[in-house]
Amino acid sequence: MSLNIAIIPARGGSKRLPGKNIKPLAGKPLIRWTTQAALASGEFDMVIVSTDSQAIADIAMQDAGVTFPGLRPAELAGDTATTNDVVSHVVQWVERNYAKVDMAAILQPTSPLRTARHIQEAVALYQNKKATAVVSICELDHPVQYCNRLPKDHCLNGFITPSSHKRSQDLEPFYRLNGAIYLVDRKHVGDLSGIYCEDSYAYLMDKKSSVDIDDEFDFLLAEVIEHHISK
Predict the structure, then answer these.
(1) How many domains does the chain divide into?
(2) Is 91 a member of any domain?
(3) Does the residue 117 lie in any domain?
(4) Within a domain: residue 62?
């Protein structure tokens, strides 16, 4: 037997928004938006929270079905720990204690408006395409053609090219990673930089579900959108 697991990486430290992973969003701690979506999707044999904070673990485990493998080891508890390292650690722990992992989902708690439906659709895409990776994306808020670097003197010479002097609706759309869902085959664990390959596919999400909370502004935006959706 092999397992499909969800990994929710939730570090305790946050410089831009202290305590964000347990900060209440619409009355519910941020991390529980993701644990509940993962559990409600019904797609995973295990939903695992990886954290260096006992406070985060205690809140996450209020949802029955969440697995907590203990606090991260010291080398994964600081600012320098990468998602790649954290995922590798969790997968190795599962395979030592339970069974081989087939697919791992990485669900960041900073994407609270990603729902069980989004997860189900992404998993269906993963299965239908026989993919080794599915990554969620959304359309850019503003055309990338209107963006450029700015020199030290702030001169706008050449900032916008003649070919980009068009109405925004006439420009080719560009997309960005939104951080909400990563589904990866076991072979990519340990080398997440390699998931962008020919058997990797994008799961397109709408912009209102794609808020990625990094600072206070993002948090306020998520609250406004959630209030609008729930009305």
Answers:
(1) 1
(2) yes
(3) yes
(4) yes
In sequence order, what DSSP letters do the residues of 166-178 get, joined into one string?
S-GGGSPP-EEEE
* In contact, 143 and 174? CB cutoff 8 Å: yes
Q: pLDDT tens string for the chain (231 positions)?
A: 899 999 999 998 777 788 999 999 999 999 999 999 999 999 999 999 999 999 999 999 999 999 999 999 988 987 778 999 999 999 999 999 999 999 999 999 999 999 999 999 999 999 999 999 999 999 998 889 998 999 999 999 999 988 887 887 878 899 999 999 999 999 999 999 999 999 999 999 999 999 999 999 999 999 999 988 877
Residue by residue, DSSP assigns 28-68 as EEHHHHHHHHHHHHT--SEEEEEES-HHHHHHHTTSTTEE-
Examine residue 149 and state whether it is found in any structural domain, yes or no.
Answer: no
CATH of the domain at 18: 3.90.550.10
Alpha-carbon distance of 42 to 27, in angstroms, equals 24
Note down the domain range covering 222.
Answer: 2-139+176-230
The C-alpha atoms of residue 118 and residue 129 are separated, in whole angstroms, by 16
Burial of 204 from C-beta contacts in 10 A (0-12 / 13-18 / 19+): middle
